[in-house]
Amino acid sequence: MSLELKDQYDKIYKYCYFKVKNAHLAEDLTQETFLKFFSQNSYINRGKPLAYLYTIARNLCTDAYKKVDTVSLDETSGDISAMNDDFNDLETNIAVKQAVSILPQDLQEIILLRFTNDLSVLEISNITGLSRFAVHRKIKNALGKLKLILREEDFS
User: Fold this and answer.
1) Which site among 45, 74, 115, 135 is 20 to 30 Å from 81 CA-CA?
2) 142 contacts: CB under 8 Å, gap ≥ 6
3) Do 57 and 94 fall into the same domain?
4) Which residue range forms the structural domain that includes residue 48?
5) Are residues 100 and 115 in contact, defined by beta-carbon separation less than 8 angstroms?
6) How many distinct structural domains can be found in the chain?
7) Residues 50-82: pLDDT tens digits?
């Protein structure tokens, strides 16, 4: 695995977790993503490997989501203990998470890729199949909606 792809493992895990909301399933899907990626030797040396990696992850998460009826919010409660003990930071993190969850699914995905996984607009464009302009516009739109939501919640 190249150094560049090793750096992507945590990002793919976060992406899968965002999609399925289950830590164990996200870990399994992340591993399966890399297994499928490396089993396709013909594609690795050409094309856009990062976009291909996220495409595999998206498809696996979609398949897994179809198999799971519902996801309990109790599974995310363990993540809170890993957050900063400072109550204000915790409250802000929860508010932002809730605000992002209100956004349409496509905007949630773009926000995750841009700000959680630190991908560039070009990389997001390659992953989603949207133009760079469309990705930039969606990010701006999502941030504007988040500001409004958080302002309503008094987190401005």
Assistant:
1) 115
2) 103, 107, 108, 110, 111
3) no
4) 1-75
5) no
6) 2
7) 888 888 999 998 888 777 544 444 444 444 444
Domain boundary residue, one of 75, 101, 130: 75
Residue 94 tokens, joined? 């929860």
The answer on 107 and 156 residing in a single domain is yes
d(Cα 139, Cα 135) in Å, to the nearest integer?
6
Count of positions (residues) in the chain: 156
Pair of tokens at residue 132: 């760079």
Residue bearing the bigger pLDDT, 11 or 48:
11
Which residue, chain included where needed, has tokens 């398949």?
63
- Token pair, residue 11, equals 């990002």
Q: How crowded is residue 153: how many other Cβ atoms within 10 Å of its Cβ? A: 12
**Which residues does 88 contact at the CB level (< 8 Å), separation at least 6?**
none
